Automatic annotation (TrEMBL):
InterPro entries noted in UniProt: DUF2460 (IPR011740), NCTSP_N (IPR057102), TIM-barrel_NCTSP (IPR057122)
Source organism: Sphingomonas jejuensis
Name of protein: Uncharacterized protein (TIGR02217 family)
Annotated ranges, domain DUF2460: 564-765
Top-level taxon in the UniProt lineage: Bacteria
Sequence ranges assigned to domain Non-contractile tail sheath N-terminal in this UniProt record: 17-205
Domain (Non-contractile tail sheath TIM barrel): residue spans on this chain: 210-550
Length: 767
């Protein structure tokens, strides 16, 4: 397998799309209002919104530059709209109508003919035929005017350099400040969307990465503004199949009561959220995908009722590090549990009504532990449930006494009871629903605080309390701590007893664009999870995949150079002719001076093993091996007779032969390399095919234990080497090669005449 961070589209497949295609509109709005946009037909969209303030409006947006699709699937940037004519039918309800002051207005942002930034405000009613809530609208961007009353207030639009356009949607009572008397729900629909003219067609990335065996994770809080059809198009186009692991979020799904808190009596989900998830279910079914709907015990702090929050012993609420912060709901609070059950039932009903299997995940339920390691067990409901004489645990890393351990055990039982009740509520709505549990290993299995697992990995979760155990550990992955991953997975499996085939794994995520190099570690973690037999493996998450251009390839792409882990017959290969080579561009400039550019960081070696073929038996052995490799199609191992050891070229390896790196107290994986001298600017040779039994490792000058050799030539430690400790290794190794040609020519007369056949091989560079 392999991966790529695409920065632009080059030779990849491209098709064409009409501007204003229904799939590519977005919405934006200020919080706490909520809005969503969905496709209702190939040429139709619907916007739903709920307004709480007099000064809030939603924008229905078309961007000239596509910032919401993967670079290989995005439409081209085209800012000149003058050769476009847009038509659609407008219908609306619950918002200001077309003829009202502050009614729907098309704002066009860009630059005028002189290049000066400005905006124009096009009143849609001036270009409509029909009623204020049901009209045909037609706009010719070569001859359109801003202004409220035309022609007296006409402000001619120059649509030759546009950044974006958006239609504003405002509630009745818009204007001024403060809250509306009651929440206002509104909607608008654009149907029969049509764009004509010489500039109406733009290029569209249309790649279809072959399915590679991985699935995708998403989150509503990051994708609420795009259409579900657009989201699913990216997932399928990038080769992800199976189920979408979809986190319903903690900040955008809920209805608000009059105090601005979650838990409104008239339903758990706001209407924009409900419509969006209905459309997501429909789009997933159409694409042959399923949904795993994930609900956590987390809510945006500003919208969470105070009594629902977990609290530390000093009364401080459990707050995450996000900005603005979220908080954790107490598993002991009856109102909070009832609320989560109502939310779970509502999402289960969406999946059930869509006709898809109901798969429901309880996402990362835990008692929050603060940065200074205080556990939040002390809200009023928890105190009542856990007993009046609760000891105060000031540091979960220092728990040693029986009373503290007993308290953590009781807290675990409360947590297990809350998750079981949530699953039961979902199954009451959708009998037979699959129940999944997502556990974040670095928090609940922190090796510095081993007793916290009593509360946060309760034995009440043991198999078969859930159908599937899902694991994620992105802090360990992005730190390169594969040893912690191995120990964490083993500990979770041992404690809860889920067979590996009933486990899922979530690999991710890259928080910031400047950290995009972490995708190498994430991809490796996903591949490692597949190799250990885990069920579905998900990449977390789609917004970061799109932002960074991440592409994963399966066996149909990067592994086209298939490899058989078998050795070329040593009795033939030991007579090989060896020719290491580089690729250097040499340019002779004026005065006879040279400019040299090395295209390769390491030599690529070719071999001729023909001299080793000296008999009928050798020829038969060679022919069998050639056919088994399908000519040049499949790689294999070759022992280079002149260079196959870390000790010199052919010596007996020792644990101090080659420096792999220096420990930092975090990293647990070090790649096997061989240095050939030449100073620090000369790259080391990557050793991808060591003889595993020959590997010897030392750390800080001492023979090391607690390590293993992983595929690709990596040494992985159970515990990270100490900061500053030199990590060294010795080993024997083979070279990955393939036959250089698809044809092999040998003759019986060759041997008798004393001639050597030619059997060329070429080194295969592995990632």
């Amino acid at each position: 397998m392999g991966w790529w961070l695409a920065e632009r589209r080059t030779v990849q497949e491209t098709s064409w799309v009409k501007r204003f295609d229904a799939r590519f509109w977005t919405v934006n709005f200020p919080r706490p209002m909520m809005a969503s946009v969905v496709t209702t037909a190939p040429d139709a969209i619907r916007v739903d919104a709920v307004f709480y303030g007099r000064d809030t409006l939603a924008g229905l947006i078309w961007d000239a530059e596509d910032r919401h699709d993967h670079v290989l699937l995005a439409y081209e940037t085209a800012r000149d709209f003058r050769a476009c004519r847009l038509q659609f039918r407008w219908r609306s309800g619950g918002i200001l109508p077309l003829d009202a002051v502050n009614g729907p207005t098309l704002t066009i942002e860009g630059r005028d003919a002189a290049g000066q930034a400005r905006a124009w405000y096009v009143r849609l009613w001036n270009y409509a035929r029909g009623t204020p809530e049901d009209a045909e609208v037609e706009i010719d961007f070569a001859a359109v005017d801003g202004g409220f009353l035309l022609p007296g207030e006409a402000d001619p639009v120059w649509a030759g350099d546009v950044d974006r356009m958006f239609v504003s949607l405002a509630p009745p009572g818009y204007g001024g400040t403060g809250a509306l008397p009651a929440p206002v729900a509104g909607w608008a629909e654009l149907s029969g969307i049509r764009c004509d003219g010489a500039g109406s067609v733009i290029a569209l990335g249309d790649v279809l990465v072959p399915p590679h065996g991985l699935s995708m994770a998403t989150g509503y809080d990051d994708l609420y503004h795009v259409t579900p059809a657009r989201l699913v198009r990216n997932i399928v186009g990038l080769g992800y199949r199976g189920a979408i692991n979809h986190y319903v979020g903690m900040s955008h799904y809920f209805r608000l009561d009059g105090a601005g808190k979650a838990g409104a009596a008239d339903g758990a989900l706001n209407e924009p959220c409900r419509r969006w998830h209905q459309a997501l279910a429909a789009a997933a079914i159409e694409a042959g995908l399923e949904l795993i709907l994930s609900l956590s015990f987390e809510l945006l702090d500003s919208h969470c009722p105070e009594g629902w929050k977990q609290r530390a012993a000093d009364g401080a609420p459990a707050l995450t590090g996000w900005e603005p912060p979220s908080t954790l709901l107490s598993p002991a609070n009856g109102e909070a549990k009832a609320y989560l059950q109502a939310v779970g039932r509502a999402f289960a009903a969406i999946a059930r009504e869509a006709g898809m299997p109901v798969r429901f995940q309880v996402g990362e339920p835990w008692w929050w532990v603060t940065r200074d390691r205080r556990i939040c067990l002390y809200d009023d409901a928890a105190r009542a449930a856990l007993g009046p004489d609760m000891p105060v645990i000031a540091d979960v890393a220092a728990v040693t006494g029986p009373q503290e351990k007993a308290l953590l055990d009781r807290a675990g039982a409360v947590l297990a009871g809350a998750t079981a009740a949530l699953v039961a509520a979902v199954r009451a709505e959708a009998p037979g629903a699959e129940a999944l549990l997502l556990a974040y290993l670095p928090s609940i299995l922190d090796e510095r605080a081993p007793e916290v697992r009593r509360a946060n990995v309760p034995v009440g979760w043991a198999w078969p309390a859930f159908d599937v155990l899902q694991l994620e550990d992105y802090d360990w992955v992005t730190a390169g701590d594969t040893g912690a991953t191995a120990r964490g997975v083993a500990a979770a499996t041992a404690r809860l007893g889920y067979p590996v085939e009933t486990q899922h794994y979530l690999a991710g995520f890259v928080l910031r664009p400047e950290e995009r190099a972490q995708w190498a570690l994430i991809d490796a973690a996903a591949v490692a999870a597949k190799r250990r037999g885990t069920g579905p493996v998900f990449i977390w998450a789609l917004p970061q995949v799109i932002r960074d251009g991440f592409v994963h390839f399966g066996e149909g792409e990067a592994d086209v150079q298939a490899f058989d882990d078998v050795a070329f017959p040593i009795e033939i290969g030991r007579e090989a002719v060896v020719r290491p080579g580089f690729s250097t561009a040499v340019v002779t400039v004026a005065g006879g001076h040279e400019q040299r550019n090395a295209d390769w960081a390491d030599a690529r070696t070719d071999y001729d093993v023909g001299p080793g073929v000296r008999s009928q038996a050798d020829m038969e052995l060679l022919l069998r091996f050639f056919r088994a490799r399908m000519g040049a199609a499949r790689g294999f191992r070759l022992r280079d007779p002149f260079d196959h050891s870390s000790a010199g070229m052919t010596g007996v390896p020792g644990a101090a032969d080659q420096l792999l790196g220096t420990g930092d107290g975090i990293a647990t994986r070090f790649r096997l390399v061989k240095h050939y001298g030449g100073g620090p600017d000369v790259p080391a040779r990557i050793i991808s095919r060591p003889e595993v039994a020959s590997v010897r490792v030392s750390v800080g000058g001492q023979a090391a234990s607690g390590w293993r050799v992983e595929p690709g030539g990596w040494v992985a430690f159970d515990q990270p080497p100490a900061n500053g400790a030199a990590v060294r290794a010795g080993f024997l190794f083979d070279v990955p090669v393939r036959f250089a040609e698809d044809r092999l020519e040998v003759q019986r007369t060759t041997f008798g005449a004393g001639e050597a056949v030619s059997v060329p091989l070429i080194e295969v560079k592995e990632a």
